Every structure is written in C-alpha cells, then in structure tokens.
C-alpha cells in the first residue's frame, strides 16, 4: 500500500536543520508539506547532544512510498544523523515514519512491548490512529505526538495524501 513518508526532525540550530533537510531531500525527493518549527521540551534525553533549546519540524515528502521500505528509510536516516554528527554527538535526531489514511507509523531503533521488529535493528509502532474524524494517540504514544499542534499537522498531511491516492487510483 502506498503511504506518505515523513520525517520528524529534532534540532538545536537552524543551520543543522537546513543541512538535514538538504540531505533528506537528496535521498527522498521533494517536500510536499512542512510544519512550522515548534519548541520541543518533552524530555531531557536529547539535551546532551542537541543543546538546551531544541525544536521540532515535520517534513512530508511528495513521492509516495511502499510501507515495507520503512526499515531501509530508518537505516538511511540513521546514516544521515551520523554524517551530521560533530565529535561523535548527533546534531539532529531524525524520526521517519509513514502516514496512511488510517494511521501514523513511526520507525525506531528502540524495542518496546508495543513495537514490531522489522529487521536489522529497526522497529515500528502505530503512533496515531484516525477515528471519529481525527487522529488519536495510543497508550504508548510519545507525549509530543499527543500535542494538538502535531495532530493538526498530521491531519493536514492526511488530507493531502487522500487527494494524492485518489489521483493514482489507490
């Protein structure tokens, strides 16, 4: 099934954001939708690498993907994180996933009870489900993905995806 690829980017500097976006576009093609930059203060986990002022941006790609490519996409985004690292520390965190009309799926390198193994150290989880005309989080959904501004971004992307799927007859 065709899906819309997106990457959530955590970053501490605009320069690193632009470098990451450039590399992501080289790998995955043109951007069809971008979220505004949003402050990110949900955890201390990334502060040692990304700094104290972390922000988040989502980018959605024009080219539709097959869902079974998520493992390879996560492997590629991990390589981009390494490329953009400085003195062994990441300067961006790249979280790829895909969007269907029914759900948002995230890739991860961290195993947990609700994640399915895709192979090569990559896992996937359904993060948001679409029901009653909006996205809803699961019990294990990251707190930031429960934020209304994130849900709105994914609902906007879903509307674009539905139109694209009609055009290709999917």
Model description:
By secondary structure, the chain is an alpha+beta fold. About 30% of the residues lie in helices and about 35% in strands. The chain has four helices and nine strands, in the order βαββαβαβββββα. Strands 1, 2, 3, 4, 5, 6, 7, 8 and 9 form a nine-stranded antiparallel sheet that branches. The radius of gyration is 15 Å and the shape is globular. The termini are close together. The model has no long low-confidence stretch (mean pLDDT about 95).
Total strands:
9
Number of helices: 4
Output the helix-strand order. EHEEHEHEEEEEH
Strand proportion? 35-45%
Given helix and strand content, the structural type is: alpha+beta
Q: Which percent range fits the helix content?
A: 25-40%
Q: Return residue spans where pLDDT drops below 50 for at least 5 consecutive residues.
A: none
**Average of per-residue pLDDT values:** 93
Distance between the termini: 8 Å
Largest sheet: 9 strands, antiparallel
Shape: globular
Query: Radius of gyration over alpha carbons?
Result: 15 Å
Quick recap:
By secondary structure, the chain is α+β, with helices and mostly antiparallel strands. The chain is built from 4 helices and 9 strands; from the N terminus they run βαββαβαβββββα. It is globular and about 45 Å long.
Q: Main attributes?
A:
170 residues, alpha+beta, 9-stranded antiparallel beta sheet, 4 helices, globular
């Amino acid at each position: 099934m065709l899906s819309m690829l997106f990457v959530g980017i955590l970053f501490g500097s605009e320069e690193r954001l632009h470098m990451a976006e450039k590399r992501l576009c080289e790998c995955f093609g043109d951007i069809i939708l971008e979220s505004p930059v949003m402050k990110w203060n949900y955890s201390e986990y990334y502060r040692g690498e990304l700094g104290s002022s972390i922000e988040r941006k989502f980018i959605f790609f024009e080219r539709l993907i097959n869902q079974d490519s998520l493992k390879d996409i996560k492997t590629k985004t991990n390589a981009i994180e390494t490329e953009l690292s400085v003195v062994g520390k990441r300067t961006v965190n790249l979280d790829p996933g895909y969007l269907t009309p029914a759900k948002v799926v995230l890739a991860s390198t961290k195993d947990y009870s609700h994640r399915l193994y895709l192979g090569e150290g990559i896992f996937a989880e359904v993060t948001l489900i679409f029901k009653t005309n909006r996205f809803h989080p699961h019990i294990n959904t990251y707190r930031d993905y429960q934020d209304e501004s994130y849900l709105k971004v994914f609902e906007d992307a879903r509307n674009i995806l539905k139109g694209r799927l009609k055009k290709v007859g999917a």
